[in-house]
Amino acid sequence: MDGHNSEDSKQNTADMTVFVQNLLQQMQSRFQTMSDSIITKVDEMGNRINELEQSINDLKAEMGVEGSPSPLPPPNQTSDGAKQEEGSA
Questions:
Q1: What is the Cα–Cα distance from 24 to 56, expressed in whole angstroms?
Q2: Where is region (Disordered) located (predicted)?
Q3: Three-state SS for 70?
Q4: DSSP 76
Q5: Which residues of the chain have pLDDT under 50?
């Protein structure tokens, strides 16, 4: 009987080893797939950021070509002029 138990133990160990190896291979495959997916998405985001930067630069260039002044006047220009007039009067 001891020989039979020894063989069962060896077989169980071998089965467990194969199971663990298969499990590790599956995990490695899944992690590789996830890693590839993440890298692809990061690359896509990088491309989108580059496109946004180019669009912003194009808009800046258009605004510069038009030469339109800022829609808001400088904050203290009007009030300083009024104070100078009041003080000199």
A1: 47
A2: 57-89
A3: coil
A4: T
A5: 1, 82, 89
